[in-house]
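INTERNAL AUDIT FORM
Audit reference: QA-55
Scope: verify that the stored structure record matches its stored sequence.
Auditor: D.O.
Record contents follow.
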Amino acid sequence: ASQAGDESKTIDHLKRAIARLDDESARLFAAAARRRLGALLGGDEGRELIDRADAFLVEQSIKNPEKMTDCLAPGFKVRA
C-alpha cells in the first residue's frame, strides 16, 4: 500500500499490524510499525508514536532506531 501511494490503506494496515504484533509480543516489529505510522500521521499524534517506539528501541540497546526501522519495516516511501 505504501509503495502504491495509498496512504489511507497504509495507515489502516499499520494500525492492524501494531495490534497483532503487540498481541504476539513481537515488540521490535511493533515498534518499527509505530515509527512508520507516526511518520505517516505526523503532528502530535505521530510524534508521540515515534517517541514511544524510540524509547522502547533505545531500551533494547538499539543505537539508531531509524535504521532499525528500515531493517524491520522496509519498503516505505519516505517523505522528503
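Auditor finding: record pair retrieved intact. The radius of gyration is 12 Å.
Action required: none
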